[in-house]
Specification:
The protein is α+β, with helices and mostly antiparallel strands. It is built from six helices and seven strands. Strand 4 and strand 5 form a beta hairpin. Pfam families: DUF7689.
Length: 174
C-alpha cells in the first residue's frame, strides 16, 4: 500500500496528544476515516520514555545491558539516528532489496537524506507489516507507509547485526 498523505498528516497531529486514552481514541477515529491497519502493542508499557524507535527496531530496547546503560546515562535516546548512520557508514548494516526482505529485517525511514525513523519487519506475505515505536508514544503495528508524515516515505531495508554487537559499539560510543 502506498502512503496515504492525509492519514500520514493526521498521524502527525495525533502524535501531539499526550493523554494515552485520548491518543488511542484518535487512532480509532482515524481507523474509521482511513481504514488503516495500525494497532497499539503492549511492548514497553511503563518504560516508553526509556527507549526510542531505533533501540526498538534493532531489538535491544528490552535487553538488560541496554536498560542498565539507559539508567546510567539517564537518556532514552542513546541509540539515535547519528549512531545508526554511523553503523551504516561503517558497514555493520547490510542493505537488501525490498524483494529480499524477511521477517526480522529493519526498515529505516528517511526524509530526503535525514534518517528519521526505524521499524522491524514482522510480516512480508501480502504486504510488509512493521512494528515500530513512535516518538514518546506506544509501540505500533502498522503497514509500511502507515506512519506519521514527519517520518518520511523513503524506505531502505537492512539485515540487522547481532544485538550484542550493537550494544558493544553503543557502550563504546557513550
Amino acid at each position: 500500500m502506498d502512503c496515504n498523505q492525509d492519514l500520514s498528516h493526521a498521524l502527525d497531529a495525533a502524535m501531539t496528544i499526550q493523554n494515552p486514552t485520548d491518543y488511542l481514541k484518535r487512532i480509532e477515529e482515524l481507523r474509521q476515516q482511513y481504514d488503516h491497519g495500525i494497532t497499539i502493542l503492549p511492548d514497553g508499557a511503563g518504560r516508553l520514555r526509556n527507549f526510542n524507535c531505533f533501540a526498538y527496531a534493532f531489538g535491544i530496547w528490552d535487553h538488560s545491558d541496554f536498560i542498565t546503560l539507559v539508567e546510567e546515562t539517564l537518556k532514552g535516546a542513546i541509540m539515535n539516528s547519528k549512531f545508526v548512520l554511523s553503523e551504516l557508514a561503517q558497514g555493520y548494516l547490510t542493505e537488501i532489496a525490498i524483494a529480499d526482505v524477511q521477517v526480522g529485517d529493519v526498515v529505516l525511514y528517511f526524509t530526503d537524506e535525514a534518517l528519521t525513523h526505524a521499524g522491524k519487519v514482522v510480516a512480508t506475505d501480502n504486504r510488509i507489516r512493521v512494528h515500530s515505536k513512535w516518538g514518546p508514544s506506544e509501540a505500533h503495528a502498522h503497514g509500511l507507509y502507515e506512519v506519521p508524515h514527519a517520518y518520511g516515505t523513503i524506505t531502505r531495508f537492512f539485515r540487522p547485526p547481532n544485538p550484542d554487537e550493537i550494544l558493544d559499539r553503543l557502550y563504546d560510543a557513550t
